[in-house]
Amino acid sequence: MKKIVFVLLILFVSNALFSQSGRIDYLIKLDSLSFKDNGKFKERLQKMKEYASNQKFKLSFNTNRSSFEYIESLSSDPSFNESENIIARFAATTASDFYYDRIENREIQKKNDGQLVEKTNARVDWVIGTESKKIDNYLCYKATYQESYISRKSGKKEYTEIVAWFAPILPYGYGPIQFYGLPGLILELKYKNTTYLAARIELKDDTVDIKFPKGRTITEDEYNSRLQSSAGAVLLTRKKAEKKEQK
User: Fold this and answer.
1) Of 58, 127, 138, 147, which residue is the least packed, with the fewest Cβ within 10 Å?
2) Quick one: how far is CA 149 from the chain centroid?
3) CA–CA–CA angle 173, 177, 180 (5° rounding)
């Protein structure tokens, strides 16, 4: 209990002392992937892992807003393949950019296809513990969240644990992808098989303007419904083509 009170005290003091905005660059670390298929997919999965491990993301923030975006790769490697890189983003990291307004409690997700998906009253029920460690000389505390999902195998609700390490001395409730709401910046986040690690932390005394993407937004349910319709149309077209070939 004393540790939690101490954390809150640090948060109160630092709110008055620290800069108005900043940027964090994150590197990617992947857990060992289990290659169930020993055939041609093993090589493909290994390639995906290599591309994902070399990706970088940036979190820009001010007191009221944040953006989490992919840092475009300028690879000098002649074998670099942007299509493979995009597949790795879909499979291992994220193919979307995220924008969050703390005052309005509103999140906009810019999908890979350019569609803007809006979520309001987004909330993550973090459980903050007393376990701590230092990241780049910042004292961080561990927080966990149980995210629910429907299992494809059982069709039942199951949970995956998200682990975040946040720094109370950096009093901004932002973090990678769609995870925020802690009393401090998230400097490390483990989500499924992927860990986002803060590699560069830059704080500024002036306020950086965080611009949200412009355009029509839709809800997450609407977006998922469109994806299902598109997938169904593709499947129908494929079946028709197969029937023609059989004739």
Assistant:
1) 127
2) 17
3) 20
E strands in the chain: 21-30, 56-62, 65-70, 97-101, 106-110, 116-120, 127-135, 138-150, 157-167, 185-191, 194-204, 217-218
Amino acid residing at 9: L
Percent of the chain with pLDDT over 70: 80
In 3D, which of 51, 23, 49 has the Cα closest to residue 34? 49
From CA 134, how far away is CA 118, in angstroms rounded? 34
Q: How far apart (Å, rounded) are the C-alpha atoms in residues 22 and 25?
A: 10
Q: Return the residue matching tokens 């376990």.
A: 131
Are 187 and 140 within 8 A, CB to CB?
Answer: yes
C-alpha span between 184 and 165 (Å, rounded): 9
Q: Tokens for 13?
A: 């003091």
DSSP letters for 89-110:
HHHTS-SSEEEEETTTTEEEEE
Say whether pTM exceeds 0.85: no
Cβ atoms of residues 110 and 102 within 8 Å: no
